[in-house]
Amino acid sequence: MEYIRVTKDNLEQEHICCAISSNKDIQVASKKAWLQERFDDGLVFLKSTGRGKCFIEYIPAENAWNPITAAGYMYIDCLWVSGSFKGHGYANDLLEACIADSKHKGKQGLCILSSAKKKPFLADPKFLAHKGFKVCDEADNGIQLWYLPFVENADVPAFKECAKHPHTEEDGYVLYYTSQCPFNGKYVPIVEQTAAENGIPFRAVHLQSREEAQNAPTPVTTYALFHDGVYLTNEQMNDKKFLKLAGR
Question: What is the number of structural domains in the chain?
Fold first, then answer.
């Protein structure tokens, strides 16, 4: 498999794997706009040359859009291999490339979100354990922070206090999300409209800066849905899923 690094110079020409369509599609446009601003923060987007979901996206942890404390680490936003790409060792290729790059940049190690049992859109804990990652912190909702140190006595990453006990003070459904996930560009407005049409209290909070994301009341900032203050899920909703969740 051949891989290519997406940069400012080739961003417009390259597909971005998890939303394969025209640049005019809101999913592609929103994700590429988000990436364009993150490259200056040290973000790396490495993907297969083939069209499909096979890529890794990582960034210095100080610039991650998550409420974590992990100075000197590299934070993996997403490692995604699916469909026909599974079972060929491509996830190993991508992770090893990230490790080599991070060591070259003098990082203490890697960190990434997961959970005790596999959750949608989070790294597979079995794969992480196999690669030597360990759990270093866990929030009340079961979301875990895993890390792979490169050196002995490396500092241990942790969630910020705001993320350890995910909750909101609002009634109804409250969604925190970023433009990191391209699906949000399409489906968040759909859920907003569905909620309005069915009289379901719903508010979407679009995290639009690193500072907002690093102080969010949830370890997962790409998509975190709450109901009456209680965290529900990080799985993206469409209209049918949301209505089912709401009992309609």
Answer: 2
User: What whole-number distance in Å separates Cα of residue 166 and Cα of residue 67?
Assistant: 11
Q: Return the CATH number at 167.
A: 3.40.30.120
Are 48 and 39 within 8 A, CB to CB? Answer: no
pLDDT in tens, 135-156: 999 999 999 999 999 999 999 9
Domain interval for residue 240: 163-245
pTM: 0.95
What is the side-by-side strand order in the sheet with 134-138?
3-6, 44-48, 54-60, 73-81, 109-115, 143-149, 134-138
Do 29 and 89 reside in the same domain of the chain? yes
CB atoms within 10 A of CB 107: 23
What burial letters (b/e) apply to 62-72, b meaning 16+ CB within 10 Å? bebbbbbbbeb
At 49, which CATH number? 3.40.630.30
